[in-house]
Structure formats: C-alpha cells, structure tokens
Amino acid sequence: MQHEPAAFLASSVPTHSVGHVHLNDVELSFEVTLDEEYVRLYMKYGGRVVDMGERVHNYVLLLLARQRINDRRAGLSDTACGWIDQEEWSHDPSLQPNRVSVDLCRLRKELARFGVADADRIVERRARSRQLRIGIDRLSIVTV
Hints:
There is one protein chain. The chain is of the alpha+beta class and 144 residues long. It has one domain (5-143). 27% of the residues lie in helices and 24% in strands. The chain has helices at 5-10, 58-73, 97-113, and strands at residues 27-32, 39-45, 48-54, 84-85, 123-125, 131-134, 139-143. The strands form two sheets. A four-stranded mixed β-sheet has the order 3-2-1-7. The protein starts with a helix and ends with a strand. The model is unreliable at 1-17 (pLDDT under 50).
C-alpha cells in the first residue's frame, strides 16, 4: 500500500508521546529520494504516525523492505518472502557485514527508544546462512 507523504505528516505525533508498541502492530513507511541518498522512516500504529527521521541505517532496512515487498508481489509464500543473502551486497562498501551489523544495532536501539518493545525482531536472520529479512510485512515505500 502506498501512502502520500503529506498524509503521514498530517497525523504525526511527537516522539515523547509514543508508548510501548509491538512490531505486529506497526507499519513502516519509507520516503526515499530517487537517488536513494535520503531515506526517511515513519512508524504507523494505532492511528498514530511517528517520524523516525532520516538516518543512514534506514537504507539497510529499505533494501530489506523492498525485497519483502517484491517477493510478496511475485507470489512467494510469507515464509519465503524477503530473504537476502548478504553476499548480494558484497559489491557495495556501505553494505559490508560489519557495517550492516552496526547499522542494525543502531536501528534496534532507535526503535526501542521510540517505544517498540520487541525491537530486536526488526531483522530476522537464518542461523546457518548469511540471510536477512525485515521482520514485519506491513511496509510501504514512497519515492519523493
């Protein structure tokens, strides 16, 4: 589902009023520029929208969200949707395994700061491989 950026901003709430929420109740919306240099993240739940800002670590989450959305559109089962092997990112210095781990740690801390009780589940990993996927499926991406 695509959302207009203005619709998200119109109902946004200050971060200090965010209570505890679980990922199952959250929709994430990404606003990304055409060149993908800027990625702003919004968290929507219970009629509220929280502007989580424009952060470097949002890019990794955007890539994972895009994969999950594309796999869902291709008709894959939910358990198969969204998995990316980190080897696919080996050509990009900003997506090296150590950098991705740091970005994901920052993302989890930020989600926890915004009241997400189970922020550690935002990214799932397959134990015997280097595969990752975003841990929720309520996602939208808007190009601005």
